[in-house]
Amino acid sequence: MTASKKNKKQTRDTPRITAQDLAKKQREISVSEFFTKNRHLLGFDNPRKALLTTIKEGIDNSLDACEEAKILPDIKVHISHVKNSEDRFTVTIEDNGPGILKTHIPKIFGKLLYGSKFHTLKMSRGQQGIGISAAGMYGQLTTGKPILITSKISPKTPAHHYSLVIDTQKNEPRIIKDEIVDYEVKRGTKVVIELEARYQKGRQSVDGYIEQTSIANPHADITYINPEGKETRYPRASKELPIEPKEIKPHPYGIELGILIKMLHDTKSKNLRSCLTNDFSRVSTRVANEICEKAGLNGKARPSRIAVQEADSLFKAIKLTKIMNPPTDCISPIGEDAIIKGLKKQINADFFTSITRPPSVYRGNPFQIEVGLAYGGDLPEEGLIRLLRFANRVPLLYQQSACVVTESAINTSWRNYGLSQSAGALPSGPILLMVHLASVWVPFTSESKEAIAHYPEIEKEIKLALQECGRHLSTFIKRKKRAAEEFKKKSYIKKYIPHIGIALKEILDLNDRQEQKIINNLTDILERSRS
Q: What is the distance between the alpha carbons of residues 356 and 336, in angstroms, rounded to a whole number?
């Protein structure tokens, strides 16, 4: 039998797959299953980055919890090797926060997309309810070990201890152990995760992350023990807690058509006018009437009965109506003084400056840009400057080239401020530059939250802040150069003052005492001119 005839026979003998057969293979994919197969989206690309992401999510949770409870954070981070294993580590993160209610512990740590901040518009580190539960899921995936949580909410109540894993098919916590234990703290939470990872020193390591976290959060006291057993303490440089951000309503400019339709269907307001004024920020009765008029809609119409085409007209009318910018008390900047305190705590430099720009808006979302700069001292003279990027006080260590912060720094003309800079590169010199974006919703380029997207409004504000810092730096560099030149000239004069005294002694026939008096007077005049 020829090959072609054989293939035809096999094709006839193979049963044809029907639509019913395909339908049987379809099933719902839980969010946990999705992220199990796509863990790189959450920052678990490789063992080294997995360790960093786990530490990051734990510290973010601790800082947010302490600040919300108005407690100065004391955080302990301990990484240790698992016995007889080079690629397994135990990560322990402990804080002095308010603790977590017993009933909430399983869902916070054992269910992805469970949190309190996703639907609130105010600045916070974590927003999506993915972070710490994803870290626990990664540990479970690579070692098979559960995540361990111990939490205490008051000195008068017992501590609760949970051992749990995530049921990835249902995206639900599966409790292995639930018990009351002794926990010798007034209140706080301790999380232990065993995971497959790799520890490596460097700026993109856990060590660098904790150092940068300390700079952006000078109110926090952080103790860090690395896998080698070395303990490093980053004491707090400020006893002032950050200003508590307030929740705001969504701004009309920041919503899309689908969200608008959903809000119209879900609103508790009885008519369209009150829906616009009650459910959005900065919409007065006058503005609501103007929007309705431009959309050709009756302000007394029931929102839930507005058709898709009418909602589209409403959406277009919003864009054509001048609406005041949203309130900015929903963001909490670090502050110029606190930035300098944070930098001085870690960097030995000759000059420090910082700028906090006034709040601005992109797509209806308030944001604020801050820049801190350290120059000279122990910073290396050779090579490019060191650029630190932060979003809502959280360091961004990866994807630097894809970030609007880096692009803005490259596009700033640093030569105008006394620095050398090659085309398409960061400037060179002994400089550490930090840029912080504070916002109710940071536009990250991916779920791993490592780079900020390129919005023109954000780029403009970053460049303005960098230019202002550059002017301060330029003034310092010019003053320093002028002082160095004056010192050099005066040192030449001082060198020849004794010879002038000898010459005058010989010309005027002076004694030794008179000669010394002349030398002292000339030296005194030189010193006074220096001051």
A: 6
